[in-house]
Amino acid sequence: MIKLNNIHKSYEMGSSKLHVLKGIDLEIEQGEFVSIMGSSGSGKSTLLNILGMLDNYDEGSYHLAGKLIANMSEKKAARLRNEMVGFVFQSFNLISFKNAMENVALPLYYQGVSRKKRNVMAMEYLDKLGLKPWAEHMPNEMSGGQKQRVAIARALISKPKIILADEPTGALDTTTSYEVMEILKEINEIGITVIIVTHEHDIAAMTQKIVRLKDGRIHEVIRNGELSEFRYKYSKELQPA
Amino acid sequence: MFDIDKWQEIFATIKKNKMRTFLTGFSVAWGIFMLMILLGSGNGLSNGVASNFMNDAVNAMWIWTGETTIPHQGLKTGRPVQFHNDDYDLIKSLSGVETASGRYYMGNTRYSYGKESGEYTTVTCHPELNTVENMELLEGRFINSVDIVETRKVVVIGKDIKEALFKDIPALGEYVNINKVPFKVVGVCIEPGSTRNRNAYMPVSTAQKIFSGGNRLHNFAVTINGQTLEESQQIEERIRSTFARKLRFDEKDESALGMYNKLENYIQTMRIFQAIKIFIWIIGIGTLIAGIVGVSNIMLIVVKERTKEIGIRKAIGASPASVIGLILLESILITTIAGYIGLVLGTGLMEGINYMMVQSAGEAAQQGETVFLNPTVDFNVAVAATLLLIVAGAIAGYIPAKRAASIKPIVALRDE
Ligand SMILES: Nc1ncnc2c1ncn2[C@@H]1O[C@H](COP(=O)(O)OP(=O)(O)OP(=O)(O)O)[C@@H](O)[C@H]1O
Ligand SMILES: [Mg+2]
């Protein structure tokens, strides 16, 4: 599904250059549930943005569903994003002057779906996430968990192959975080690849594979089977030193 | 363009930001409003002056003779120059001359009917005089060519003469004594733009015969078919040089042959108004440009405010073109609607002034001199202004829209 080969990425900072990704090799299969971890500034968001075609890479190759993603026009990238990827952000990124239903329906607008049809579909997805009564509410009238569920509905409505979530639980309390993770798990179970960036070990532990970034490189990849050990290690980390 | 969804998107944002939209629109509305008022006033002034000219045919020319002041071919100065009937045939045959009427002055003439009598001016003329001076006939007809050929004793009297001599009795068909010779009244007329109608018109041939004028003529009133100032000056020159040769005086001798060319005056005056109009357009367009810059500025701020929103839209699949469309259409919508309001208010005000002027002036507006007439703006100009507004909106929105399209979602969405 996703195949990264020696990906490099640097940002120009005035005269100097900041080398953020220093050769990432990564393969993610269809239907995997992956979390990306690492310290702040290690390049997690950068990697996710490249995966989501929001940003270009400098070197290497990125294949998505067998297609090389490189040198695309903005228009083509926008269409591909719309068809393939659903985004979930830490700060929800809902459009403030649109109600929940309109926010959810927006990706379909860019697919040219008629207003009536997309509103019906938006209601369907809101219903799935238990937000039907909130359809007419504006984002500022909703709690963080509700907003994130609206954002997830919006990410799902275009029936993407991949959900990319950058710290989806970063702004939520533990209970709500677990609810959101539960939803993401259900999404994963219907076959959608889910990739999340997180700082929290307990959140990462709910995924099937953890990719740890360190200093622009993949430090370690912890797979399904090893996760129990990771959980053990993680619980030890939590104990006061 | 006619995508309802796109418009709903735009209306949603406009509704969210009413104050901002109002301020943006106001500058454009004001620009158009001022432009319409300026143009309307300019038109009013120019129409007023034009209508004063129009009382006579615009292309009218008057030619009269005097005494020579420059020695010519051995002839001394102070020699009187005189037109005769053959000069009338000559001037009629000149190219560029449309119609011509000769005139013979009779001095003071006494008109009497029954017990009433009075002194009035008698204008002796050819039928063509009516083309030059645009008389309006209240009753009957003007002098015609049969009157000239048969030297009929007929007269067309001015309204004031009719009222003084005939009171309420119908004058048509009655005989009025002019210097004791009876003439049949065939018409009553007024001169538009004049408050005195004390002239009477009689066939020039009759006047020459009855009042012993021989074949002498005193002046000509002609209309010419020159379109431009140059053409009309050429015709003037041609007439002058023809008569200079025939009547033997120096071509530069202004007092031997006097000429007044209305077209020349008209064109020169209209040129001034043309200049004023251009000036008004420059000021108006300037005001409009200020409005456009204002819109452009506000739209730039709008784009900045909406950076995050645009980033979100792009992340979930908005193409650069759709983002440009969003900003551009909003800009065009605001400028067009606001500009249209300015247009309606501006033309409405001018129409209102026009209406009040017509109401208060009433009858008098047709008589006498007017400085201000019909101060309204052409429908064509209004349409042009509307198109201009749409273009203006597009220009105003272009830079902000480009800015919006270049927003990178990763930058817009980065959490502070
Ligand atoms: N658009 C950009 N221009 C310049 N530098 C950038 C840009 N985006 C990210 N960086 C820099 O690249 C580095 C990696 O950023 P990135 O956002 O990928 O880190 P991260 O792992 O997501 O960190 P965090 O956990 O704090 O979100 C950081 O030092 C950051 O300052
Ligand atoms: Mg990050």
TrEMBL record, chain A:
SUPFAM superfamilies found in the cross-reference section: P-loop containing nucleoside triphosphate hydrolases
Every ABC transporter domain range: 2-240
GO MF annotations, alphabetized: ATP binding; ATP hydrolysis activity; transmembrane transporter activity
Pfam families to which the protein is assigned, alphabetical: ABC_tran
Gene3D superfamilies: P-loop containing nucleotide triphosphate hydrolases (3.40.50.300)
GO cellular component, one term: membrane protein complex
Matching PROSITE patterns: ABC_TRANSPORTER_1, ABC_TRANSPORTER_2
Domain of life: Bacteria
CDD domains: ABC_MJ0796_LolCDE_FtsE (cd03255)
Keyword annotations of the record: ATP-binding, Nucleotide-binding, Translocase, Transport
Family: Belongs to the ABC transporter superfamily. Macrolide exporter (TC 3.A.1.122) family.
PANTHER family, sorted: CELL DIVISION ATP-BINDING PROTEIN FTSE, LIPOPROTEIN-RELEASING SYSTEM ATP-BINDING PROTEIN LOLD
Protein name, UniProt field: ABC transporter ATP-binding protein
Organism: Gaoshiqia sediminis
Automatic annotation (TrEMBL), chain B:
Keyword Transmembrane in record: yes
GO MF terms held by the record: transmembrane transporter activity
Topology in membrane: Multi-pass membrane protein
Record keywords: Cell membrane, Membrane, Transmembrane, Transmembrane helix
InterPro entries: ABC3_permease_C, MacB_PCD, Macrolide_Exporter_MacB
Record-annotated membrane-spanning stretches: 21-42, 278-303, 323-350, 379-399
Domain MacB-like periplasmic core: 21-230
All copies of domain ABC3 transporter permease C-terminal, residue ranges: 282-409
Subcellular location: Cell membrane
Highest taxon of source: Bacteria
Example of a GO cellular component annotation carried by this entry: plasma membrane
Family affiliation: Belongs to the ABC-4 integral membrane protein family.
Name listed for the protein in its UniProt record: ABC transporter permease
